[in-house]
Known about the structure:
The protein is 38% helix and 20% strand. It is α+β, with helices and mostly antiparallel strands. The site of adenosine-5'-diphosphate has 20 residues, from α2 and α4.
Amino acid sequence: MEVLIMQPAFGEISVSDFFYRHRELAGFSNPSRATYMVIREAVENSLDACEEAGILPNIKVSLSYTGDELCHLRVEDNGPGVPPSEVPFAFGKFLYGSKFGVRQSRGVFGLGITMALLYSQVTSGRPARIIVSNGGDIFEVKLRIDIEKNMPLVEGKKRLANMEEWHGSIVELYFKGDYPRAEKRIMEYFKLTSIASPHAEIAFTDPAGDQHLFRRSVEKAPKQPVETLPHPHGVDAEMLRRLLKRSEGKSLLSFMVKSFQRVGYATARKFLESAGFSPHQPTSTLTNDDVLELLDAMRKYSFPPPDARCLSPIGEDALRDAIMRIFEPEFVAVCERPPSVYLGHPFIVEVAVAYGCKGIEGEIVLYRFANRVPLIYDAHSDVSMNVLRRFNWGSYLHVRPQATAVFTHICSTRIPFKTAGKECIADPPEVEREIELALKECCRRLKTHLTGRVSVEERGRRFNAYKKYLPKIAQFASELAGRKNAPNVSLILERILEGKN
Length: 501
Ligand SMILES: Nc1ncnc2c1ncn2[C@@H]1O[C@H](COP(=O)(O)OP(=O)(O)O)[C@@H](O)[C@H]1O
Ligand SMILES: [Mg+2]
């Protein structure tokens, strides 16, 4: 008799259901970390929105307890708001957002604030309240998520008159939190955010009612990164297929020029001819094999490097000023590397080494940033930590520096995050190399500073010794020589002081 083996039943879950089951992948692994994540996701969106609209961000964050473990968070910004028809989707649907273009932004997945809403809903059972305005009427939406379907559920809508021409967004959530355990990290997050976004002002009211104001130190919004086309080295087979489909039968020549950055007509013609394609061939006639062949040829061809105008580094001066203000070090060396590229994605690395910082006990502390966001958790397996671990301080400084802070900032159109929680960066060799080069450059500058300081100290010591003994030697020598008056030594002392001796 035939024996059939029992087979499992099959099913499908939505993306929201996936994150409901695996919320630790998005960083919501326990109440303390979730408290930090909820704040971070809301603040990050406020900063992105304000910058995109060219507005200097004023962000008000307040956190309070309404029960033993139940927290209430309110985050208000002065950004452009969200169109009322988009509010349910932007806040209540996973993988829905406005940041999928090729340009640097803090958000990337269309996931952050929706994950915060999901966590809020499953731990408090209450809807979120979102209030938005672009300066016209104010719209208020009470929102839940249909987690099984990945769809927003609007529970109530209000339209209110806007007497004061207020614009911005307010997000209010209840969730199971643990502020006491998260406090240190949250305060560090705010402090470091004001280094990476020195043009932002953030006021935080903690559960005890204490106000913490993180003032802006730069009165100008950073230059808005420009949205660009993909680089030919930054596409894969799927992306190439999509671009070809969108090109609606153009010639290959015009497809290459219009779909990719850094490809002009001359480059496109040379490339196509070298790859064995006719520049006039319509894209609609390409077979599957042709597409793969084109992709392979694109990877091998040496196109000019990607355009870095889509990136927004902090800048050496702004970084130095912010570090000086917050850490009050004896000396800071800052290095911004020229744009580089990994897998076709442009990136810029900035590194600062601050020596003799106030408030740092012990040797070296690493502070990491990605697209102007401080990374607080999961440092152990981050690319910057790997570089720092193997870094040979001895070859620059003879001793390991004390009370020193190392800052690394990577900005890119695609940060290689290891998880959806966006706290830990993977280590493509190109990124690793740039961090190392920048760190070396900072160390060289620090070495010059320290050597200079040693020689000034040494000169001071020598001067004091000469000042003490030279008059006595002069007098003793004159007595020995039978002279009446000892020579004047002040000229010699002056020369020693000037370092000419
Ligand atoms: N404070 C805000 N101001 C303006 N737009 C916002 C704000 N918060 C969220 N949004 C919109 O909601 C979208 C989804 O946010 P989010 O889930 O955090 O994903 P992401 O930030 O990765 O795009 C954003 O892309 C943005 O368009
Ligand atoms: Mg976001």
